[in-house]
Amino acid sequence: KILENVANIVLIKIPKSLAMLEDQLHRIRPALNSETKIIAAGMTKNIHMSVMALFEKAIGPTTTSLARKKSRLIFSQFEKALVVAENPYPQSYDSGYQLEDEALVLINHASVFSREKLDIGTRFFLENIPIADHYKNIVDLGCGNGVLGLIAALKNPAAQLIFTDESYMAVESAIANFVAVFGETREAEFLQTDCLQGVGEKSVSLVLCNPPFHQNNVVSDDIAWQMFSESKMALENKGELWVIGNRHLAYHTKLKKLFGNAEVVTSNKKFVIVKATKNKLRALQDVDFSS
């Protein structure tokens, strides 16, 4: 819990997500006092009237500096008498899926992917979550709010689940959703980590992955290939990596280079679900993805 009225200086790097900024401002407000200096910085193109409005609604009077080298500073003054609404995060929405007689409601912290509704790729993946007795340990890699792992847990009741994501907010969302469904009746492991760091080699039966194909404003498959390579290390012999992606990303070609095989499980006009199976006879090797 944040200490109250103790901050002398608060420095903020403006995030791209307005939701995340709003959550941050609500969280820091209790630590502020009339003497606190609050300085935020960001690219000029990302500082809009909506950003200024968030500061004024959550902190108090706010001004900006002149732009310098495409960047700008924001100065906000704490206003003790300001009436501030409650932090709207985490939020929740009806996923459209039923758990017996109840709707599956998903809890999402401010910076989580698909915070306001399930994206269509995830919906397609959920319709095709694999079920098998030999799935003993299942990983939801890059779990976000954990919905893939959650549905996999429901469909594979004997499996042990591991949820991983680099985002603290994503992992906290996944925990909240898992506990909301299972309470204390089932355990799972939740890791805030880089891809599969912390997951043992040859310890996993199934990895589910909906990889990002861009980081910030840069379109790149670097994160996806790291996910695929670390999945291969974590999978046991005959373990499976299931990946969903847009058709144009051609994941099946890259996975075949890495695993020696890649099977298109199903597809629609926009998405493809590909399965790659680890074969112990194929030696681990570095793969050149440049081609």
Automatic annotation (TrEMBL):
This protein is called 23S rRNA (Guanine(1835)-N(2))-methyltransferase
The cross-references to Pfam families, in alphabetical order and at most eight, read: MTS, RLMG_N
SUPFAM superfamilies per UniProt: S-adenosyl-L-methionine-dependent methyltransferases
Tell me the ranges covered by the Methyltransferase small domain, including all copies.
Answer: 105-274
What is the protein's species of origin?
Answer: hydrothermal vent metagenome
Q: Which InterPro entries match?
A: DNA_methylase_N6_adenine_CS, RlmG_N, RsmC/RlmG, SAM-dependent_MTases_sf, Small_mtfrase_dom
UniProt EC number: 2.1.1.174
Q: Domain named RlmG N-terminal: which ranges? A: 5-79
Q: Which UniProt keywords apply?
A: Cytoplasm, Methyltransferase, rRNA processing, Transferase
Return one GO MF term: 23S rRNA (guanine(1835)-N(2))-methyltransferase activity
